[in-house]
Design a protein that fits this description.
heterodimer; A: about 425 residues; alpha/beta; Beta Polymerase, domain 2; Rossmann fold; 3 domains; 6-stranded parallel beta sheet; B: about 290 residues; mainly alpha; 10 helices; about 75% helix; flat
Chain lengths: ~425, ~290
């Protein structure tokens, strides 16, 4: 069995080039159809995300298997890009390394943000698209299904995915959860309707928040976001009264000066003396004056506080790296070993069938010739046994070599050599 | 039944549990939570056996329930231990035992100090006596429960306020919302239990002597405690935040301090106790006689 991949990722290729190389869903489908026509004996899956474009190929035969350069050229030609410009940045891997790479990618160990969960669904989507385009067969089914299992194993057996590392996710999953048991009945106020605010709302919604309201200088923008998240909107003038009515406040405006001052805050608070509030100030520059953190029952967290947690979590993820790497290595070896046995089994079967066919035809020819000399049954039987022994003795050394090298890297080469030397499967193909 | 079980058996188990809770700061013990739950279950089992023996089998001819301060304290400690076990099973990672077990041990210690003292006087108004005793027991239990959560709230609040402390914290505590809800629960339940205790006390006194000595130290201090918890409850109801505030925590801690003072007065004034010479019978015996009559 032969495996290969070529691709460009965030490691070597800047975003400007990755953008040009990216494939839309329809383009992936079209590219796979073209690839199938050009390399009919190869299976293929094309993975295209914002951080990588990778083409994975598998084939039983080395002879018709596309070379790295051909694959690279195929991808650049598809977009009409300069091969010479992109080829040096490409990652090209074969055999065990390509399988290892796929498992590493699926387990989110090659991602820009290690441990991010999105990549596995992208790998699965790429595989499903290839299935729809019928560009995959047994080998790709096996390797991509195994990749999903490897990713699951890494997620279950290590903590590489557990610690959040983006500011909004840490704000919700690590800080807010130390305050609240549940979010369904909490009044949550979002100040600002930018990207950070949107991401925070997503996390809050995932955690079950339902009573969310948005305040933004531009009410139109707040309304658009509120529709998306089924939240309420309030005019900017109600800023202080809404803060006082909330259990949790998330602030993400782009204001150059603090929008909430300690004097105004205290004045507004005097009407609600016993109400405790969690404020997550995710804005830079800060939206809440730092002195507000000294006000009783007010818990103010700024981006700096959260960045510290993010950094700690990144370190924690890195600490899990060796464990995850070991799992990927183990699974790669196991997969290749299983593949070898499967591939070896079909080749051996072909070889035996071919030898059996030749033996039988030669034996029949000889017996027909000897029939004229009145050969008795015992002699016929003796001849049959002699032919069987001859075939077995001839096949024994190659079979033994295959068995001995079943788990080594040479196994695929031996099988390939066997297929080519004995021209196994050639007759079927010629038909 | 297992007559060899003594106070020291379950006290030892609870001490081990407390040590394991405290060791979270210094030691990483594999399977700590499982060990902790096992030890707690063992302690609770011994505690239950001891209670059954004391309440029902110590004198076969004379069935007693909550007959003196010792039984009263050990039963209150048992109830608190059950509450702690529920918390541990709900969230084994939290170090709530560090706050609850000292109270459990203090109750057992108080009972042991009072062991062999004058038993509560028995009256023919057995039902009111039972309601009075059990209500005050429940009230005391919830006040102890409240003080543990009040302390946890203040500590957690301090840690969350000072991000540096939060970062270094090795003891995991429940969320502020949960602690606040426990503070609230203890305040409301205490007020309710004390109200029942006071009303049943009034009924008991009226039936017994036709009048109430409002100025007796035991009654006066209990009424004062009730009035205080009522005020605290009204204050708590006025706060609508999910996270509450430190005020709730201070209220439940003040409840506890008040209760200690009342307990001291009650113990000194021999409230509810008869003469040593008087034959001691228990509330449950009174119920039985009520039923029979």
């Amino acid at each position: 069995m032969h495996w290969t991949m070529v691709g460009w990722s965030h490691h070597e290729t800047p975003v400007e080039l990755r953008e040009r190389l990216a494939f839309s869903k329809d383009q992936v489908f079209e590219a796979l159809q073209q690839f199938k026509q050009r390399f009919p004996n190869s299976e293929s899956v094309l993975l295209s995300t914002c951080n990588r474009v990778e083409l994975y190929c598998a084939s039983q035969e080395r002879k018709s298997f596309p070379q790295h350069e051909e694959l690279c050229r195929f991808l650049t030609d598809f977009h009409g890009l300069e091969f010479a410009e992109l080829q040096p940045r490409a990652t090209a891997l074969s055999g065990e390394k390509s399988i290892h790479h796929l498992f590493t990618v699926a387990a989110s160990m090659d991602s820009m943000v290690i441990g991010e969960a999105q990549i596995l669904s992208q790998v699965k989507a790429a595989y499903e698209l290839a299935c729809r385009g019928e560009s995959v067969a047994t080998n790709m089914h096996r390797v991509f299904q195994r990749a999903a299992l490897v990713a699951k194993r890494v997620a279950n057996e290590t903590e590489i995915h557990q610690k959040r590392i983006s500011v909004p996710s840490v704000a919700v999953s690590e800080i807010a959860t130390e305050f609240f048991e549940r979010f369904e009945d909490k009044k949550i106020l979002l100040i600002g309707a930018g990207e950070m605010g949107t991401e925070t709302l997503k996390y809050l919604k995932d955690f079950g928040a339902t009573k969310m309201s948005i305040i933004n200088r531009s009410l139109e923008r707040a309304k658009a976001l509120a529709t998306e998240f089924e939240a309420e909107t309030h005019p900017w003038e109600k800023l202080y009264s809404q803060i006082m009515a909330s259990d949790m406040v998330v602030s993400t405006t782009g204001a150059k000066e603090p929008i909430v001052t300690v004097e105004e805050f205290q004045k507004a608070r005097s009407a609600h003396p016993a109400r405790a509030v969690l404020i997550l100030d995710l804005a830079v520059p800060r939206d809440f004056e730092a002195e507000i953190s000294h006000v009783g029952d007010t818990y103010l967290y700024t981006v700096d506080d959260l960045q510290e947690v993010c950094q700690r979590n990144i370190e924690a993820r890195k600490a899990e790296w060796p464990k995850a790497k070991k799992i990927v290595q183990e699974e790669t070896k196991r997969f290749l070993s299983e593949s070898s046995h499967r591939g070896g089994g079909s080749t051996i079967k072909l070889l035996r069938e071919q030898a059996e066919g030749i033996k039988q035809s030669e034996l029949d020819r000889l017996l027909n010739k000897l029939d004229a000399k009145d050969l008795d049954e015992a002699t016929k039987k003796e001849l049959q046994v002699a032919f069987d022994r001859l075939v077995n003795k001839l096949l024994h050394p190659p079979m033994q070599s295959l068995r001995e090298n079943a788990d080594s890297q040479q196994h695929a080469s031996l099988l390939d050599a066997l297929r080519r030397l004995f021209q196994l499967g050639e007759s079927e193909r010629s038909k | 039944m297992l007559s060899g079980v003594t106070v020291s058996c379950f006290v030892f188990s609870y001490l081990v549990v407390m040590f394991m809770e405290a060791a979270r700061v210094y030691l990483k013990i594999p399977g700590r939570n499982t060990l902790l739950i096992c030890m707690l279950v063992a302690g609770l089992f011994a505690h239950t056996i001891f209670l059954v023996n004391t309440l029902f089998f110590s004198d076969a001819s004379n069935i007693k329930l909550l007959a003196d301060w010792f039984q009263w304290s050990v039963v209150a400690a048992w109830c608190l231990t059950i509450a702690y076990m529920v918390l541990v099973i709900r969230n084994p990672g939290n170090a709530s035992g560090l706050f609850l077990i000292p109270l459990i041990l203090a109750l057992i210690g108080l009972g042991t100090l009072m062991r062999g003292g004058t038993p509560f006087v028995s009256t023919s108004e057995g039902l009111w006596q039972v309601v009075h005793g059990i209500s005050l027991l429940v009230g005391t239990m919830f006040i102890c429960f409240g003080v543990a959560f009040g302390m946890m709230y203040l500590l957690q609040s301090m840690r969350l306020k000072s991000k540096g402390r939060r970062k270094k914290a090795k003891l995991k505590l429940p969320t502020l919302e949960f602690l606040q809800s426990m503070n609230r629960l203890s305040l409301f339940a205490t007020t309710l239990a004390l109200a029942f205790g006071m009303l049943s006390g009034v009924a008991l006194n009226l039936q017994r002597s036709g009048s109430i000595d409002w100025l007796s130290p035991g009654i006066l201090s209990t009424v004062a405690l009730f009035v205080w918890t009522l005020i605290a409850t009204v204050l708590e109801i006025s706060a609508k935040s999910s996270l509450g505030g430190r005020r709730s925590a201070y209220l439940v801690i003040a409840n506890f301090v008040f209760m200690l003072a009342v307990l001291g007065v009650v113990l000194v004034s021999s409230h509810g106790q008869g003469n040593v010479a008087q034959k001691s019978t228990s509330a449950s015996e009174s119920i039985i006689s009520e039923v029979n009559s």
